[in-house]
Amino acid sequence: MPFGVLSTIRFKSSTKQDEGWAWVILIAATLNSFVALGSALGCGVYVSEVIQRWNSSKATGAFVGSLLFGMFSSSGPLTTVLVTRTSHRTAIIMGGLLSALGLVASANVPNIVGFYFTFGIMSGIGCGMIFLQSVMLVNLYFKRYRGIASGITIAGGGGGVLAMPLLERMLIEHFSWQPSLYIVAGMCLNTCVLGALMRPIHVKNIESKSSSLEADRDRVKEADSLTESETDENCYAREDDSLLKNRTYICYAVNNTLYGFGCTIPIILGPDLYAETGFTGARIDILIACFGAGNILGRLVGGVLCNIPALDRLALYVVLNILLGMFIGLYTLSDDFVLYAFASAGYGLIFGAFIVTQAVVTMDIVGRRKMEQAFSFAYFTCSLGIIIGAPLSGSLFDLTKSYKGPYLVAAIVVISSSAILIPSLLSGNGCVGRLRRQRLLAVSQIIIDPPTCSNGDAVRDTATSVKGNIENVMDVSVKETA
């Protein structure tokens, strides 16, 4: 269907969060995430095939995977423009068509340069459009259960990370790599059908109908959403409208670039590392499955952790960042299969939780009204590191004939990237600091009315004291930053 026709269609919209059509959106987005993220993170399977097909160096072959993953991450700005002119639904449908077309064309290109364009650029951008807008729409359709819903959606991608590489390896063994691309292209076309279910939503209409909490149990569930709404209206109004003047966000963007440099090395070069180590096809499948299974669990755990009101999500992000680098470093200790399996499962677990945390931390830093722009730009900065990281790692392998050097460099860069955010984490001023204090204040409000018990007065007095101390700190911070 031509773009002009898609842009003129008037789709039915929704105005309800956390209920009704929101659950249809969640299911469709989860399936889209399965196909899009599974196709992108499964690119390492085709890296080995490209190296063999055109007798390429490791650096040249690695650029195929890094280009696809980089385009996947950098598709945010393009998708944002498309969504502004049309809708999330149109962007997802266009992404499905583009990725399918790119995969079909990849099966017929005569050289690796053409493969860069069709597989790396076209398919990468298409899968990125599908995934990013599916996640974005879920965040708009859910408020109370946003963390859990985002975790479920991205866990669908974890399922794709587990299943798609294994499926692609099986298809390659039975039909060779070119016919396998036709089958994967058909799966990408199915995202167009799922995208047709993505009704637009008017968030402003919903937020104007907010109601007060009636019970302690409801207060606990709403505390996180409450602090986010207060922060959007009060905290972020004090900040400059430009993202480039938000110091915490600039540090976050630089962190994304460095993190992107090393985080995808095990994904893009992992299958080739396993083959170079001498593992058989069955053992390679097990190692890929370990990463995929850990990835699914990590995304669910990350969603649950991000939904805990009292948890400092920026601190969680920094801790996960450090752990991710440590698990990448484990690959350099030995060529033992058990160690590789442990490192793959741990890396998948932390990587999955980290990806979920990214979206929520972005909203904490910039607020809801600038979320889409900030999230897209953060993914773009991450893509810069991804595009550079894998080819440099491949070049280092060509020089040393070992993957230990590339993995060690990747681990050091990822761990170092977390240091950039530590000043923002320790700072009590700015939006992130005020958001942290608002969460503590919300938790203290929850326990001011404790259930009937023998020492209820003592608990209430303690909670009131805690609340007063937090309010005093918040007042001082506001005066300092005004």
What's the structural domain tally? 1
The stretches of 5 or more residues where confidence is low (pLDDT under 50) are 1-11, 205-240, 446-455, 473-482
Classification by helices and strands: mainly alpha
State the end-to-end distance.
52 Å
What level of helicity do the residues show? over 70%
CATH architecture: Up-down Bundle
Determine Rg (CA atoms, Å). 23 Å
Shape label: globular
Query: How would you spell out the order of helices and strands?
Result: HHHHHHHHHHHHHHHHHHHHH
Main sheet? none
Tell me how many strands there are: 0
Task: Indicate the CATH topology.
Answer: Growth Hormone, Chain: A
- CATH class descriptor name: Mainly Alpha
CATH superfamily: MFS general substrate transporter like domains
Tell me the number of helical segments per DSSP (H or I, 4 or more residues long).
21
Mean pLDDT: 80
